C-alpha cells in the first residue's frame, strides 16, 4: 500500500476493539503483518495484526536455515504458536516462517456431561465439561452437584500448602477465567525440575481453550504462590539472557499469552492480573524485578496477593488444622512480611516505568480503618445526644416548671430520659467488657466500609488526598468541640 505525506501508517482501519483483525483490513487480507507505524502513529496499542513476539534465534551460516526455530523452548514464536516475522533475529529464514494453519473454532456443547454418579463423579479429566473448561451445570446428569460443580471448587492440599510455605521448587497457581456469562477456575502444581512450571501448564491449557472453542473472555485473574520466574530456573544457568538455551522466563511467557489471547479472540481489551505471594528470589532480586518489569510492560496488572484473596484460597481447600483461623494462620506463617516485600519489588518496578506508586499494605490503611471505626462511633454518640435534645422542651424554665403542671411533666421526662440514657450506657459498657467484638461489628455500615477497603491500593496522590481530608475533618471537629466545652466551662463557672 502506498503512503502519502498525510498517511504515515500502513492501513486506514478505524480504531475499535478488534482493529486489524479481519479481512476488512488490507494488511490482513494480503496476509501480511501491519507495520509498527500502524499503532504508533495513533499512539494506541490496539492493532491486533502486529507480531506478538520477536524471537532471538539466529541462523547459523554453517547449518541449513531449516534447522533454525525448531525448538519451542528456545524460539518464543514457536512457543506461543506464532509464525516468525521479519522482525525476528532469524529474519524468517527458518522452519517457522509459515504461519500455522488455524483450526476452525467450534461452539462448546451445551448438553452437559453424562458422568455416572459416584463419590468422585466428574473428578477425572475424562469429564466432558472439564475438557471444554466448564463447570458442570443443571444440564449435566450430575446436575452440577459434583466435584466439578461451581460451588464445590476444591484446591488440593499440596497446592494450598504452596500458599502457606515457600519452598524452593514447588509452586501453586489458581486461575479464574471471566467472560460474558462465563466463569471457570482451575489449579496447577509444580514440584520438581523435570515438570513444566505452573505458568507453562496454564499457557498450554488456555491456548487449548482459545484455539478450539469460541469463547468470550474479558479477564484472566491469576493467583500464584511465587512471582513468575525470569531465567532463575534455567538449567544450565545462563550468563547472557540472549544466548540462553533453556529460556525459562514465565513472566515473559504470560505477557506473550495475553497478546495471543487478544489476537485469537480479536479483543484488544482482554485483561490479565497476576497476584503473587512470595517474590521468587533465586539468583537474587535483580531477576525478580526483571520478571515484574516484563509483565508490567506487557500490560499485565501485577499486585501482591493480599489476605482477602489468600483467605479465598484457604476456603477452597478447607483444612481441619486451621479452618476458620485464617488470621492466626496468616500471622503464624509471617505472610505480612512476604506481602510487604512483594509490594516493595512491584513499586520499584512501577517507579522505573514512570508509573505511580501503589500501596496495598501501608500505614494509610490502618489510619483509614481507625477513621471509619472511630468516626462511626462518634456519629452514634452524637445521634443519641440529638435524640435527647429533640425530647427536651426548651420552654420549660425553672419558674414555669414550678407553676405549670405541663412544664413539670417535661422536667420529670428529662429525669426519666437521663435515667434511660445512664441505663443504656451501662448496658453498652457491660456488653463491650463482655466480648471482644469491635465497633465495626456493631455498626453494619462501618463494617461494610472497612471491608470495601480490604485489598484496595492507594497511589501517592490518593494517599495525600485521604490524609488531607482526615486532617481537615479532625481539625473541624476539634474546633467545634473545644468551642462548646469552653462555653459549658464558662457556664459552669458562672453557676
Automatic annotation (TrEMBL):
Keywords: Nucleus
Domain of life the protein comes from: Eukaryota
Pfam families named among the record's database cross-references: APOBEC_N
InterPro entries: AID, CRC, Tesmin/TSO1-like_CXC
Location (main, coarse): nucleus
GO molecular function annotations of the record: hydrolase activity, acting on carbon-nitrogen (but not peptide) bonds, in cyclic amidines; zinc ion binding
Subcellular location: Nucleus
Keyword check for Cell membrane: no
Record GO cellular component, one term: nucleus
Coiled coil start-end: none
Residue ranges annotated for the CRC domain, each copy included: 63-151
Nucleus found in the keyword field: yes
UniProt record similarity statement: Belongs to the lin-54 family.
Protein name, as recorded: CRC domain-containing protein
Species assigned in the record: Mesorhabditis belari
Amino acid at each position: 500500500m502506498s503512503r502519502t505525506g498525510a498517511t504515515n501508517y500502513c492501513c486506514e482501519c478505524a480504531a475499535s476493539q478488534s482493529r486489524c483483525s479481519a479481512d476488512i483490513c488490507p494488511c490482513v487480507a494480503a496476509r501480511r503483518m501491519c507495520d509498527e507505524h500502524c499503532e504508533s502513529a495513533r499512539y494506541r496499542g490496539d492493532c491486533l495484526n502486529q507480531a506478538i513476539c520477536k524471537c532471538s534465534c539466529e541462523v547459523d551460516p554453517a547449518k541449513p536455515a531449516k534447522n533454525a526455530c525448531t525448538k519451542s523452548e528456545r524460539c518464543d514464536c514457536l512457543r506461543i504458536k506464532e509464525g516468525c516475522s521479519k522482525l525476528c533475529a532469524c529474519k524468517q529464514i527458518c522452519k517457522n516462517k509459515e504461519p500455522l494453519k488455524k483450526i476452525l473454532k467450534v461452539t462448546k456443547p451445551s448438553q452437559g456431561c453424562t458422568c455416572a454418579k459416584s463419590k468422585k463423579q466428574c473428578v477425572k479429566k475424562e469429564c466432558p465439561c472439564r475438557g471444554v473448561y466448564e463447570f458442570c451445570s443443571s444440564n449435566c446428569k450430575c446436575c452440577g452437584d459434583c466435584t466439578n460443580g461451581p460451588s464445590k471448587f476444591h484446591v488440593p492440599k499440596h497446592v494450598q500448602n504452596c500458599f502457606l510455605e515457600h519452598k524452593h521448587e514447588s509452586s501453586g497457581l489458581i486461575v479464574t477465567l471471566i467472560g460474558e456469562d462465563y466463569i471457570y477456575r482451575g489449579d496447577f502444581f509444580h514440584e520438581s525440575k523435570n515438570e513444566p512450571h505452573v505458568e507453562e501448564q496454564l499457557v498450554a491449557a488456555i491456548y487449548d481453550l482459545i484455539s478450539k472453542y469460541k469463547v468470550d473472555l474479558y479477564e484472566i485473574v491469576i493467583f500464584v504462590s511465587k512471582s513468575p520466574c525470569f531465567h532463575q530456573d534455567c538449567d544450565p544457568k545462563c550468563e547472557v539472557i540472549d544466548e540462553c538455551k533453556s529460556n525459562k522466563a514465565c513472566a515473559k511467557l504470560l505477557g506473550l499469552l495475553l497478546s495471543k489471547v487478544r489476537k485469537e479472540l480479536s479483543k484488544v481489551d482482554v485483561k490479565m492480573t497476576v497476584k503473587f505471594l512470595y517474590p521468587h528470589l533465586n539468583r537474587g532480586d535483580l531477576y525478580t524485578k526483571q520478571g515484574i518489569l516484563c509483565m508490567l510492560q506487557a500490560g499485565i496488572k501485577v499486585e501482591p496477593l493480599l489476605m482477602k484473596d489468600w483467605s479465598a484460597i484457604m476456603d477452597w481447600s478447607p483444612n481441619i488444622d486451621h479452618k476458620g483461623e485464617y488470621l492466626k494462620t496468616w500471622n503464624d506463617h509471617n505472610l505480612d512480611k512476604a506481602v510487604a516485600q512483594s509490594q516493595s519489588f512491584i513499586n520499584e518496578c512501577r517507579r522505573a516505568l514512570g508509573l505511580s506508586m501503589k500501596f496495598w499494605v501501608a500505614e494509610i490503611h490502618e489510619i483509614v480503618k481507625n477513621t471509619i471505626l472511630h468516626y462511626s462511633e462518634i456519629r452514634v454518640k452524637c445521634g443519641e445526644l440529638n435524640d435527647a435534645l429533640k425530647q427536651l422542651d426548651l420552654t420549660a424554665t425553672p419558674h414555669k416548671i414550678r407553676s405549670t403542671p405541663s412544664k413539670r411533666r417535661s422536667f420529670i421526662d428529662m429525669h426519666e430520659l437521663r435515667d434511660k440514657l445512664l441505663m443504656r450506657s451501662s448496658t453498652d459498657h457491660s456488653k463491650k467488657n463482655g466480648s471482644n467484638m469491635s465497633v465495626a461489628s456493631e455498626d453494619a455500615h462501618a463494617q461494610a466500609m472497612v471491608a470495601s477497603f480490604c485489598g484496595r491500593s492507594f497511589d501517592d496522590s490518593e494517599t495525600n488526598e485521604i490524609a488531607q481530608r482526615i486532617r481537615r475533618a479532625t481539625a473541624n471537629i476539634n474546633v467545634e468541640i473545644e468551642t462548646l466545652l469552653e462555653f459549658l466551662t464558662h457556664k459552669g463557672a458562672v453557676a
